[in-house]
Every structure is written in structure tokens, then in C-alpha cells.
């Protein structure tokens, strides 16, 4: 088996439209809507008969947003102290891209530590949290 890419990441979010606005307005990631039937949506909160997944493509990887599953705690937020994914990290072309991202994050009131230097990899990055507390990082090569 030759694994050659990460196909997609699905993120459960409390409010898909709130998350979509954040990702589109601040991160400039355009989302498409993928209609789904009851075979998928029936396990979502409220058990709707149909619904919509939101997806954006980052390189060859899709990032998808989905509502909470039935029975999820409505106050739950991401916590990297639990077992599972710790954070998402994406590459950008340059430090200029990091500066532009940092400006949009600042304008949106999103807390960051600015452009940080990673002494292990020798790269620079900007880290921040999305509306559900998932940590995102954008790295310049």
C-alpha cells in the first residue's frame, strides 16, 4: 500500500456556520456545501433527515466541518489534554503570508503570540485557536 497524501480532516464543531464564517473571513478558506442524506445526518445532533457538510481544499487535503453528534455536550470544546488530534498545521509560501494572516487574526480579535520561531525545525509559524478551541498553525517554509 502506498500512502501518498492526507485526503481529509473532519472537524466536529458546535456551530458550523460560525466556524465557516471564521475560516472564510479570517483564514480566507472558501467552503463548498456538500448535501448529505439521512444515512449520514441521522447521527447528528437533532437527528435531521438531511444536512450539509462544509468542505474546503487545502492543497490536496480537504478540511470538512460537521455538526456535533447526537448526545454531544453543547458546552464541549476541543481540549488537547484528551487523546486524539492535538492541532492542525498547514504550510504557506512565505513570511509575508504569515504577516497577512497575523493582520487578519488581529483584526478579528483572535489571540496569537505573533510570528514565532521554531528552533527544532528552523521555521516560522503563527498559531491560534478557532471558535471551538482547536489549535491551528500556519508554517512558512
Provide keyphrases for this structure.
141 residues, globular, 2,3-Dihydroxybiphenyl 1,2-Dioxygenase, domain 1, alpha/beta, 8 strands, 3 helices
Instruction: Determine the strand fraction and express it as a percent band.
Output: 25-35%
Q: Based on CA inertia axes, which overall geometry fits?
A: globular
Q: What would you give as the CATH superfamily of the largest domain? A: 2,3-Dihydroxybiphenyl 1,2-Dioxygenase, domain 1
What's the number of extended β-strand segments? 8
SSE pattern, N- to C-terminal: EHEHEEEHEEE
Largest sheet: 4 strands, mixed
N→C terminal distance: 29 Å
What percent of residues adopt helix (DSSP H or I)?
Answer: 10-25%
Radius of gyration: 16 Å
Number of domain modules? 2
| Secondary-structure arrangement, i.e. CATH architecture of the largest domain | Roll
Helical segment count: 3
Strand order of the largest sheet: 1-4-3-2
Mean of pLDDT: 93
Description:
This protein has a 4-stranded mixed beta sheet. It is of the alpha/beta class and 141 residues long. It folds into 2 domains: 7-70, 2,3-Dihydroxybiphenyl 1,2-Dioxygenase, domain 1 (Roll); 87-141, 2,3-Dihydroxybiphenyl 1,2-Dioxygenase, domain 1 (Roll), CATH 3.10.180. 13% of the residues are buried. The model has no long low-confidence stretch (mean pLDDT 93). The two termini are 29 Å apart. Helices cover 19% and strands 35% of the residues. The chain contains 3 helices and 8 strands. A hairpin with a 5-residue loop joins strand 7 (123-129) and strand 8.
